[in-house]
Amino acid sequence: MDIAVTAKLVRGWVEEAGQLLRESLSNTSIVVEEKSHPSDLVTEMDRFIEAFYVEKIRKEFPTHQIIGEEGSYGEVDNMDGYVWIIDPIDGTLNYVKQKRNFCSMIALYKDGVGIFSFINDVINEDIYYAIKGKGAYCNDKQLENVTTYPLGKGLVALNTKMVMLKPTLSKKIIQEALGVRLIGSAGLEMVQVITNRVSAYVTTPLNFWDVAPGIMIASELGLKCSRTDNSPIKMLEKNPIVIANENTHQDIINIMKKTSNIDV
């Protein structure tokens, strides 16, 4: 596989999917369903965009494994060989209620290592991507490596469940930082870290498709990404994560260690 050629091909898919999503926002008849609870939604566009990607992958790369949020494409219990990871709409609740603050993500891993990854900030028409060993980009502009600085010098992003389920721990992190920001899309929260708009993103357990694309991009920019106990990210499992510049990451891990028995 020529990685550069394949990444260019996939970028075309990502651009087309983004256009389809923007056009869908004017459709008032889109079917919305609840999954596990009222704030956990799926729409026909989630399924449509995922099917769009799957069709493209199966046509070009029929032997590759596929992991998608909304579907089953054969049991994937390992990361051997080429594995595609798809989150068609990350931030579906925002897509439905706000018509903004959502993204579409796709990544390719080989033997557990990210090869390339795309996060499409659909409304702003910004496509963030990385190719292993070639750096990270927003559209065609290369992103600079994120500088390292302590927690107290930057903003932090938390997911909603972190604030709700770990209130004491969340408060301690927020008190050490300059402030907190919440968007409601893991992909866009990770973009905030990748572009140095916030210094860290801390979460309760998220599905692998929520974080795999962002982790791949972060790795190209020298960011630290681990589980909240500082252990490595576990492939194909839910992970509570800390993604941050090196100094901020260590500061947050230190807080986690000191307060490991609270909010349990």
Low-confidence stretches: none
Do you know the CATH topology of the largest domain? Fructose-1,6-Bisphosphatase, Chain A, domain 1
Derived from helix and strand composition plus strand pairing, the structural class reads: alpha+beta
Radius of gyration: 18 Å
Q: Give the strand line-up of the largest sheet.
A: 3-4-5-6-7-8-9
Determine the N-to-C terminus distance.
47 Å
Instruction: Kindly state the number of beta strands.
Output: 14
CATH secondary-structure class of the largest domain? Alpha Beta
Largest sheet, if any? 7 strands, mixed
The CATH homologous superfamily of the largest domain is termed Fructose-1,6-Bisphosphatase, subunit A, domain 1
Mean pLDDT: 93
Number of domains: 2
Strand content: 25-35%
Coarse morphology: globular
What order do the SSEs take from the amino end to the carboxyl end, as H and E?
HEEHEEHEEEEEEHHEHEHEEH
CATH architecture of the largest domain: 2-Layer Sandwich
- Tally of separate helices: 8
Enzyme class: hydrolase
Protein name: Inositol-1-monophosphatase
Organism: Jeotgalibaca dankookensis
InterPro entries: Inositol_monoP_metal-BS (IPR020583), Inositol_monophosphatase-like (IPR000760)
